[in-house]
């Protein structure tokens, strides 16, 4: 432990005060799914709706975080575990700021998603399973990565030669092969309204 000579400081303004000012309840929308399943697309659509409804939100997106904060990490199991650990810590800080945070990472291991959930207060972690058959992801192949993985040019590719644990009981189950991007986004916003994270007043 490298924290033995450091002390946690409580801030004068609480998370509850920050959230009350924003007229919302902080939440972590944790998107998980295969590459090409639609995490980034749906998360961006939800974020745009939240912005339209004057909610205070922020999206931590896979490729962007891997270019910066986690630029030192690859795709071994150990690197993915550290990737998700850092992301969940950053997300927790953003929740402390009173925000509705979205994270769009494959996050393939159920144990890491459980650790992220355990860092937050009850009910704040909302697991969103972007459930798209690998055949559809592979057909979409927006970045040409499945082609490379099948050709053996990329190793440890999720769903091919690296494991993905299907969420056992996600709060929200999204099927992108059967619903439009707009329908998927609306399903998630409806959950936030139903569970009082955002108020219908925001929508007017
Ligand atoms: N080996 C391998 N396996 C899976 N994905 C790979 C790999 N190499 C590069 N990429 C690209 O990196 C994106 C996944 O990064 P994540 O940070 O979301 O992955 S993880 O949560 O740590 O498993 C992923 O982005 P998405 O397609 O948006 O999911 C890929 O573009
Ligand atoms: N209903 C849908 N929801 C999300 N993405 C969809 C949907 N239908 C088609 N797509 C397409 O699938 C691709 C998903 O890519 P992306 O969002 O980058 O996935 P991921 O972030 O999971 O890797 C995009 O090209 C998107 O336009």
Automatic annotation (TrEMBL):
Catalytic reactions of this protein: adenosine 5'-phosphosulfate + ATP = 3'-phosphoadenylyl sulfate + ADP + H(+)
Pfam families named among the record's database cross-references: APS_kinase
Binding site for ATP: 33-40
Gene3D superfamilies in alphabetical order: P-loop containing nucleotide triphosphate hydrolases
Domain APS kinase, residue spans: 26-175
Keyword ATP-binding included in the entry's annotation: yes
Highest taxon, organism lineage: Bacteria
Keyword NAD: no
Biological pathway: Sulfur metabolism; hydrogen sulfide biosynthesis; sulfite from sulfate: step 2/3
Role according to the record: Catalyzes the synthesis of activated sulfate.
Entry similarity comment: Belongs to the APS kinase family.
PANTHER family: ADENYLYL-SULFATE KINASE 1, CHLOROPLASTIC, BIFUNCTIONAL 3'-PHOSPHOADENOSINE 5'-PHOSPHOSULFATE SYNTHASE
HAMAP family, alphabetized: Adenylyl_sulf_kinase
Name of the molecule in the record: Adenylyl-sulfate kinase
């Amino acid at each position: 432990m490298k924290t033995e000579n450091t002390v946690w400081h409580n801030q004068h303004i609480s998370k509850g005060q920050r959230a009350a000012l924003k007229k919302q309840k902080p939440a972590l929308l944790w998107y998980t799914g295969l590459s090409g399943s639609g995490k980034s697309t749906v998360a961006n659509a939800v974020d745009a709706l939240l912005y339209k409804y004057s909610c205070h939100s922020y999206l931590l997106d896979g490729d962007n975080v891997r270019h910066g904060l986690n630029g030192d990490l690859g795709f071994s199991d150990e690197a993915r575990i550290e990737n998700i650990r850092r992301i969940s810590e950053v997300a927790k800080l953003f929740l402390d700021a009173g925000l509705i945070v979205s994270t769009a990472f494959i996050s393939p291991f159920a144990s890491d998603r459980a650790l992220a959930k355990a860092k937050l207060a009850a009910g704040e972690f909302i697991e969103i399973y972007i459930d798209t058959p690998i055949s559809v992801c592979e057909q979409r192949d927006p970045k040409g990565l499945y082609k490379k993985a099948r050709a053996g040019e990329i190793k440890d590719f999720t769903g091919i030669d690296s494991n993905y644990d299907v969420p056992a009981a996600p709060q929200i189950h999204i099927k992108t092969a059967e619903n439009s991007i707009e329908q998927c986004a609306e399903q998630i916003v409806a959950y936030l309204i139903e569970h009082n994270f955002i108020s219908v007043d925001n929508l007017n």
